[in-house]
Amino acid sequence: MSRMDELLAALPPAPFVDDLGLRFTELGEGWAESALTTTPRLTQAQGLVHAGVLATIADHTAGAAAATLVDEGRYVVTTEFKINLLRPVIAPRVHCRAEVVKPGRRITVVESRVSAESDDGERALAAIALLTLAVVGDHAV
Amino acid sequence: MSRMDELLAALPPAPFVDDLGLRFTELGEGWAESALTTTPRLTQAQGLVHAGVLATIADHTAGAAAATLVDEGRYVVTTEFKINLLRPVIAPRVHCRAEVVKPGRRITVVESRVSAESDDGERALAAIALLTLAVVGDHAV
Amino acid sequence: MSRMDELLAALPPAPFVDDLGLRFTELGEGWAESALTTTPRLTQAQGLVHAGVLATIADHTAGAAAATLVDEGRYVVTTEFKINLLRPVIAPRVHCRAEVVKPGRRITVVESRVSAESDDGERALAAIALLTLAVVGDHAV
Amino acid sequence: MSRMDELLAALPPAPFVDDLGLRFTELGEGWAESALTTTPRLTQAQGLVHAGVLATIADHTAGAAAATLVDEGRYVVTTEFKINLLRPVIAPRVHCRAEVVKPGRRITVVESRVSAESDDGERALAAIALLTLAVVGDHAV
Asked: Which domains does chain A have, with CATH numbers?
């Protein structure tokens, strides 16, 4: 099993993002990438991908990035985040890359960048988020 | 038709939040309230309502609150927001109240408070968000 | 000594805000108010009070509000904050009220509202901030 | 006059940051760097550089970075920002690099990274901020 498979296997299933269709495409120590195929179900009133979808992707990918640096038996939960929506998203695919900015024993700060991806694979930065995650769970494990 | 019905009728359908089951319960000039029945589909790995769901509710209710103060023919889009997740949500229902903090011709700032609601109607504040919305569309309409 | 005097006495001196001229005007369990007389020294290029000054006031007053709920021997440090600047400030005085939104053993979330105050005491909301503070120090004290 | 001198000359004086001792060290299209020598006057109760100082540096350097991309006769004002304080700063110097994430005709989003700098020039990331700036002023100029 590769290191990425190990990291993926350590990520528990998450019904909400599974339902959206989010899947991780790459993972390493301190970072994670994910992708989502957009559908009409994920849009807001003007037909754009809903800000809540982009926020969910930014948050969930950040959680995976942070989780790669956490001791076994511990996990992360989001304390707060801020997201800037940089352009409307109508692209067929959304891509996210999350990188740990500052790992910590109790608090980890992560940045997520969400891009709209066209059919020919071109990406345009669509959202940027800064997230604070708390590291929780049994210290003794 | 009551003022609330008028305001509701002016809100266009939004597939993503309809799919989540969010519905507006009350609306007035500069504020909006919404409610959502939680389901296992909306949870993250530990069985809590996903941060992305709470962010979506905060954002969408803020959009409705801002929209009540906008001229006909114009609409609002979220520029950015920040949300603090204050406690894990496992409650059967989530409630949100959004209030315009500062309306503007171009930018409106809104605060949303999301509460977990128990079966007997007790509410506990679960998230607080501060959102910046841009007012867009034809000025001349 | 009144309860407010006790709370004030428990706040350690802070050179930077003393230098700005910030002083607390009222304090209670879970909230604090402060005031500042603006001077040309505190302005940015267009003659408005600098965003950094408003952020400092919001942050420091939030710290005092959080400190009123913390056990003896422990103190608070800001983990992160977000501030929306709602209108330019040229008023002779700035006022801030900070309220704890959610106290916690480890993390406290506070909201600060900063107002411009005219000579006849009228206040206009000029900034709103949401702050996360970590509660640190010896648990055993 | 070099391009950096031109950009610097276009930045108007700002009393508050001049008083703190902030000065720009490098500027280019879409980015800016600044430095500050810390003094006891800039500290909070525990002797650390005050969060308000770090926020001011992040904000002001972001403003300069955004200003390098703005048409003559127009200027930028901060709409809102969020800052994560990543470690306590007691270093003799603070350095900031701000980069435009997304320029815009009306709104520019900038990221600022503030580092503590030791006497031998080593830098440790101390704060990261995400800022929204409005581009204002006469369009016709």
From this structure: 3-137 (3.10.129.10)
